[in-house]
Amino acid sequence: MLASLPDGGRAEMSRAIAAAASAQSAWADTPAPVRGKILAAAGRLMLERIDLLAHLMTREQGKPLRESRTEIRYAASFLSWFAGEAERIYGRQIPSADPTKRLLVLKRPVGITAGVTPWNFPAAMITRKLGPALAAGCTMVVKPSELTPLSALEIARVFADAGLPTGVFSVVAGLDAADIVEPVMADMRVRKLSFTGSTTVGTALMAQAASTMKRLSLELGGHAPFLVFEDADLDIAVDAAVASKMRNMGQTCVAANRFYVHRAVVDRFAERLAQRLGELVVGNGLDDRTDVGPLISEPAVAKVEAHVADAIANGADLLTGGSRTVAGGPFFAPTVLRGVDPTMRISREETFGPVVAISTFESEQEAVALANSTPYGLAAYYFTRDVGRVLRLAERLEFGVIGANDGIPSTAQAPFGGIKASGIGHEGGAEGIAEYLDVKYLSIGSIEAAVD
Known about the structure:
By secondary structure, the chain is an alpha/beta fold. 41% of the residues lie in helices and 19% in strands.
């Protein structure tokens, strides 16, 4: 056993909301440079404690240590970025047609906010929500995944040590997510919810939010296409495929899932990728030699097994992997399937595991149609040397995050969010802090004209 924790519920969340309500006014009125300094200090502390935070994450979640360290650096980057954004919340004056009036646009924090975060990125998914909330002058209560509460609690310790006032940020951990979140959805004082998780839960939260007219940011499921054109640099494409597919053992909502490769280069691409994935070391994430750690649970492995078995039974070719590995744990070998078609489960469902499923195409029009043939619209990737095609596909692909010759496009400075069934709203960039701000319009009348 790694640790034991109290099992929080609605009572604990109600107290956290009350604490946030008590702290909200003072935090909103705290000068932006002061808020920014606290965020920056928390970011520095995360980097100073990177080994402690990374080891804790690997022990509770499983990802290899070097990935955990990368996530801590990524998580800290949201704090340093939004520390600066705190000082860039600008209103404006609008030219008036009436010389006796002045028209102003003001921006103020929305108020108390809430974050519900997943297990696959237990640090970064908190700071990506918390950074802009605190920068804007909002308090926040966070309900982390019941599978990864320790990372969330350690981040709370970081903020306490950075000087964040009591009540501005609280963590409520427990096993019954619906029970914990119920006070958040029912309380009119909580004005904004940011959720990362499944589309099923996201749509339920959207319905619940209607009664209190809460603002929502929803980052939901994905089924990302990965397009390789005949003119692609295959070395870049293979490197990007490994990075996108194998990060956190394929357990990311932006992981490449559907690989569409031009028929002219599919043999070379598939062979190179199978060789690369076959060389990856599967094992304990605490071992620095490990490239691929365990999946999050036994049901997660069973789902991967079912997808691979269905594909092979329906005619797909297995190039590498295809089975469990490392006795006594939820491990699955990095796998490459070729000859996948749209009827197979792996083409229709998000696998959330270390499996590459390769299909072919012959034209750009066909590739775009295949990529868009999903209700999801979170991330997409494509590889080509044709600059015109880079621009055309950016416009035609129905996804919110697009990597052109780039397998890891996410960064704190840029907006992250999906379209269609992948959610609404954005995190990161200037758009991320806008989600936590109310816009007010002020018309000031009866201003006397100046007299010489």
